[in-house]
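Chapter review: from sequence to fold.
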Amino acid sequence: MQDILSILQTLHRPQLLMRAARIGAVEYRRSAHLPRLLGYGRTPKTAATLLKLFEYEDELNIQRKSGESAYNLVRHLDVLIAIVGEARILRASQPNG
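The token string follows.
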């Protein structure tokens, strides 16, 4: 099984969407963003949060690619911002070894 950061590296989305997510991740605060995406309550640890966000993003990407009318670009961008932000938190918490 791939580790979480490897999954992130294999995530291929339109360049403009990812650029917007990286820009938005500069202002990412998990206490403000995650409850909107995952519901209120106790926020899971970063790794578990990323796995949930990957699942949710995959569903949104399927909707985007199929042209479903239920697709919400803003929601997709919010999820990608959270993924990039959580990945940065995870990378920062790892020892530089």
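Two observations follow directly from the output. The mean pLDDT is 88. Residues 4-93 form one domain.
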